[in-house]
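All the exercises in this workshop are built on plain-text protein records. Instead of coordinates, the fold is spelled out as a row of discrete tokens. Once this layout is familiar, the rest of the handout is easier to follow. The record below serves as our worked example for the rest of this section.
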Amino acid sequence: MDEEDLQRFLDARGIDAEIIHLGRKTKTVEQAAVALQTSKDKIIKTVTFIDGSGEAVLAIVTGDDTVNPKKLAEAIDTIGVRMATPIEVEQHCGYSVGGVPPVGHKMKIKTVIDTKIMRKKFVYGGGGSDTSLLKIRPWDIKRLQDAIVKSITGHF
């Protein structure tokens, strides 16, 4: 999948979001913040985990935060989670690591959004490739993903 697939997904649902084509790699939060000349807390990371039953779970946190796996597992009521491999990310999401958007995946994926994100008017996340970003409202992410909103960052 790529930016065009993401744009079709957004258009089909009437979502007012923007895919920003940067023409340079933005695989990391630092690269994205520099490219947009903004702070890391306006960048979101969509991190893919695998739960105990082998199902994918997306954890969405601000760029200056880290997912606490224990809090994530508690939020979805499972024993534990582990980070997905790059192959698993592509299998479940349809996108490569570094370009995974917070919405518009290959299949429906259980999603948890950290509470800090919901305080923002808009955020920038993966845009379907490692050279694009998606500007979107957090409430649209929540609605499209039918996401759980919980605190999933902090000390391990």
Strands lie at 18-21, 44-51, 56-62, 81-83, 110-114, 123-126, 132-136, 148-150. Residues 3-150 form a domain with the YbaK protein fold (CATH 3.90.960.10). The longest strand covers residues 44-51. The chain has one domain: 3-150.
